[in-house]
């Protein structure tokens, strides 16, 4: 195999390939697993998993976190903002609207002059038998979980390219993209997250030449307002006894380390992968 810095011909000459060299880490590269100095945007970060990710990113020295959310911030967001004055911000954004996403990303860049990382986290789920789903419910799931994630990724990738930033995009996928959720099945939800994981691999391949990395995280059972009922089921303990794994739901902040790694310069050669964070993976 020819060296990556040659033209591939064994003629005694070596020709540098600027497009490839441009994606290599520079002398200013930070080899620590840290977000120091980075501006990160997270969709759906006013509550739930998104807010927990914002907290972990702030704890890992992110310069600024922008929550792009369709809902107004609540008390939990305000409490985290108070602990991190001038570092946690909110911008109204409907990720199912390309215009809204463009406006939100422009607002981040206008406020701080750059964006270095993006977490496409906004999403929803609905658990019911497949035969009970209406077309309207399917449209809602796919518009938010798939089209919304796609609009966000393509919009921020254009900004990375325009600004010459080797940015990182991380999708929130799900363990249901691998196998059914036996505790709360939803064929359409699993299909949306399967689409997100496939997008991860393809976009990573397309954008690698720009130094843009694209990865995803697949959470297992995480304790949020959307999953509060899961471990309250009367047969939960029995399921855990037979399925194995960690017999509990995760604190959403337990996901944060994987996101921080993928957003950091320490992951400069990590792209196109999915990281399952599911301590009870045996339950799926």
Summarize the structure.
The protein is an alpha/beta fold and 284 residues long.
Structural topology:
Blueprint: H1 18-21, E1 39-43, H2 48-59, E2 64-69, H3 75-83, E3 88-92, H4 98-112, E4 117-120, H5 135-163, E5 168-172, H6 187-207, E6 213-219, H7 236-243, H8 256-263, E7 274-277
Parallel strand pairs: 1-2, 1-4, 2-3, 4-5, 5-6, 6-7
Helix pairs in contact: 2-8, 4-5, 5-6
Give an overview of the whole structure.
The protein is of the alpha/beta class and 284 residues long. It contains 8 helices and 7 strands. Helix 2 (48-59) crosses helix 8 and helix 5 (135-163) runs parallel beside helix 6 (187-207). The longest helix has 29 residues, at 135-163. The protein is globular and about 55 Å long. Residues 1-17 have low confidence and may be disordered.
Percent in helix: 25-40%
N/C terminus separation: 41 Å
Arrangement of strands in the largest sheet: 3-2-1-4-5-6-7
Low-pLDDT windows of residues: 1-17
Task: Report the structural category.
Answer: alpha/beta
Counted beta strands = 7
CATH architecture: 3-Layer(aba) Sandwich
Q: What is the name of the CATH superfamily? A: NAD(P)-binding Rossmann-like Domain
Strand % is 5-15%
SSE string, helix = H, strand = E?
Answer: HEHEHEHEHEHEHHE
What is the radius of gyration? 20 Å
The CATH class = Alpha Beta
Principal-axes geometry comes out as globular
- Integer tally of domains: 1
